[in-house]
């Protein structure tokens, strides 16, 4: 569970005010469905306490796998009622659910290329329950959810920050693969000219390394996790445990890229942006660069922002790649109305 608060210090400049984590037990959620609400509530309460803010308004997100999207065309001059009817009809074809069990939203994406009086739009549909369970969760600890986004769109918003600071020419005309390596899964998100062109989820994550540490050094999973992050492990850790894990990660990244090339007309990527908690593993950046020959960077969505004196800058530097979604969500607060 990750909480992040951004502030606005004028002239479009943002500041990282504070952030906090809480450990979410593995069985609390399953495929984006909250299976043990009491455990999730407990984690949110704990993260909230750690955050120590007076703000109560939050933006949250749904896992990418919990939504279905479709590009649609909204005829020029359609009234609100007509649009609503159209959206319901579209949603009806997308999911086999009564419309009252569906939550939907759309975003206009500019005039249609062939028929400029019509508007391109992206329709996003999910089970209403997925939204309601998250709203209920936030409310149960006294928070006020204002925005419900989707992981992938939040990631894209954070990517804009990264493109502006970490990529040459703002990323224009270039292909960048954002590879988010989490605890249990890895999300590959390829952008060309800053537009998403490919997404895929893989089963690869840092929990494998945590488990191996626990097994090798006879620790509990919690102890292993803590020691991994702090780098307080026996001398043979690097050669015997970390290195083989990094080798397997690099191999998986390479395989994921080959999959992308074979599924699309792309043959190369200009940049690889490593994100997620595992991006901070020492040595990974160099190894990925070596193997792929693409320019490789650890994603820092806060590179353009200032940092409050309360936040430990060194800790933030190692946590930043795992805060892409949180950053994208917090930025929603500053969207033009
Ligand atoms: N500084 C660090 N050094 C090494 N590993 C780290 C560090 N920080 C986090 N991790 C590892 O990264 C993983 C968590 O990453 P992240 O926070 O991106 O995952 P998540 O988004 O919660 O999980 P998932 O994407 O699988 O649902 C854990 O395996 C954790 O041990
Ligand atoms: Mg993740």
Per-chain topology:
Elements: E1 2-8, E2 14-21, E3 29-30, E4 33-34, H1 37-51, E5 57-62, E6 67-74, H2 80-94, E7 102-111, E8 119-127, H3 128-140, E9 144-150, H4 151-166, E10 175-181, E11 186-192, E12 195-202, H5 207-216, H6 221-230, H7 237-263, E13 271-275, H8 284-292, E14 295-298, E15 306-307, H9 313-319, H10 324-331
Parallel strand pairs: 2-15, 5-9, 10-13, 13-14
Antiparallel strand pairs: 1-2, 3-4, 6-8, 7-8, 10-11, 11-12
Helix pairs in contact: 1-3, 4-10, 5-6, 5-7, 7-8
The chain binds adenosine-5'-triphosphate and magnesium ion.
Provide key terms for this protein.
337 residues; alpha/beta; Nucleotidyltransferase, domain 5; Dna Ligase, domain 1; binds adenosine-5'-triphosphate; binds magnesium ion
Q: Can you give a write-up of this model?
A:
This protein has 2 domains: 2-65 and 132-334, ATPase, nucleotide binding domain (Nucleotidyltransferase, domain 5), CATH 3.30.420; 66-131, 2-Layer Sandwich (Dna Ligase, domain 1), CATH 3.30.1490.300. 39% of the residues lie in helices and 27% in strands. The chain has helices at residues 37-51, 80-94, 128-140, 151-166, 207-216, 221-230, 237-263, 284-292, 313-319, 324-331, and strands at residues 2-8, 14-21, 29-30, 33-34, 57-62, 67-74, 102-111, 119-127, 144-150, 175-181, 186-192, 195-202, 271-275, 295-298, 306-307. The strands form 5 sheets. The protein has a 5-stranded mixed sheet, sandwiched between helices. It has a 3-stranded mixed sheet with strand order 1-2-15. A hairpin with a 2-residue loop joins strand 3 (29-30) and strand 4 (33-34). Helix 1 (37-51) packs across helix 3 (128-140) and helix 7 packs across helix 8. The longest helix has 27 residues, at 237-263. It binds adenosine-5'-triphosphate and magnesium ion. Residues 182-185, 205-207, 210, 225, 228-229, 276-278, 280-281, 318, 322 line the site of adenosine-5'-triphosphate (ATP). The site of magnesium ion has 3 residues, from loops.
């Amino acid at each position: 569970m990750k909480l992040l608060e951004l502030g606005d210090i004028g002239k479009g400049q943002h500041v990282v005010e504070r952030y906090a984590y809480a450990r979410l037990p593995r069985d609390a959620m399953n495929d984006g469905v909250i299976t043990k609400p009491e455990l999730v509530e407990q984690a949110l309460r704990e993260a909230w306490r750690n955050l120590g803010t007076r703000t109560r308004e939050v933006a949250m997100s749904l896992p990418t796998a919990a939504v279905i999207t479709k590009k649609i065309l909204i005829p020029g001059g359609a009234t609100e009622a007509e649009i609503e009817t159209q959206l319901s009809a579209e949603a009806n074809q997308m999911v086999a659910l009564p419309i009252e069990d569906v939550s939907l939203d759309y975003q206009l994406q500019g005039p249609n290329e062939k028929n400029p009086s019509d508007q391109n739009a992206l329709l996003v549909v999910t089970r209403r329950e997925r939204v309601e369970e998250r709203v209920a969760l936030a409310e149960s600890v006294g928070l006020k959810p204002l925005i419900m986004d989707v992981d992938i769109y939040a990631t894209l918003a954070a990517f804009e920050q990264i493109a502006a600071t970490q990529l040459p020419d703002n990323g224009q005309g270039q292909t960048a693969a954002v590879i988010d390596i989490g605890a249990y899964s890895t999300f590959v998100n390829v952008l060309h000219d800053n537009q998403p062109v490919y997404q895929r989820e893989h089963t690869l994550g840092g929990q494998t390394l945590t488990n191996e540490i626990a097994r090798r050094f006879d620790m509990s999973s919690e102890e292993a996790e803590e020691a991994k992050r702090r780098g307080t492990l026996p001398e043979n850790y690097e050669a015997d445990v970390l290195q083989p894990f990094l080798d397997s990660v690099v191999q998986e990244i390479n395989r994921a890229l080959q999959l992308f090339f074979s599924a699309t007309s792309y043959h190369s990527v200009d940049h690889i942006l490593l994100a997620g908690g595992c991006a901070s593993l020492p040595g990974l950046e160099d190894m990925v660069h070596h193997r792929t020959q693409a320019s490789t960077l650890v994603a820092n969505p806060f590179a353009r922002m200032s940092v409050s004196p309360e936040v430990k800058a060194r800790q933030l530097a190692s946590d930043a790649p795992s805060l892409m979604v949180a950053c994208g969500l917090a930025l929603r607060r500053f969207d033009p109305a």
